[in-house]
Amino acid sequence: MTCEAVVLEAFGEPLRPKEIEVPELGEGQVLVMLEASGVCGSDVHMADGEDPRVPLPIILGHEGVGRAVR
Ligand SMILES: [Zn+2]
Questions:
Q1: 51 C-alpha to center of ligand 1: Å?
Q2: What is the CA(42)–ligand 1 centre distance, in A?
Q3: By the number of CB atoms within 10 A of the CB, which of 21, 37, 52, 67 ranks highest?
Q4: Phi, psi (rounded to 5 degrees) for 32
């Protein structure tokens, strides 16, 4: 199964929509169909490359709202 995500591939560059593979769920994990996601200040700092711990590529956003589908 795939889904659409907006991905940061390089610091300081625009986010790009991509079709990505949904990983298999592990024990105790839930698949959530996001309906909205906020962009907070830490996302902006990560996109600008101000946190060297951020691995690339990355899907930003950690303030999501959605439905558990599996
Ligand atoms: Zn935040």
A1: 14
A2: 6
A3: 37
A4: -115, 125
Predicted TM-score (pTM) above 0.85: no
CA of residue 41 to ligand 1 center, whole Å: 6
Residue matched to tokens 């902006």 = 44
For the chain, first and last CA: distance in Å?
13
- pLDDT over threshold 90, residue 28: yes
Name the phi and psi angles at 47, rounded to 5: -65, -30
User: How far is the centre of ligand 1, averaged over its atoms, from the C-alpha of 43 (Å)?
Assistant: 7
Phi, psi of 45 (to 5 degrees): -65, -40
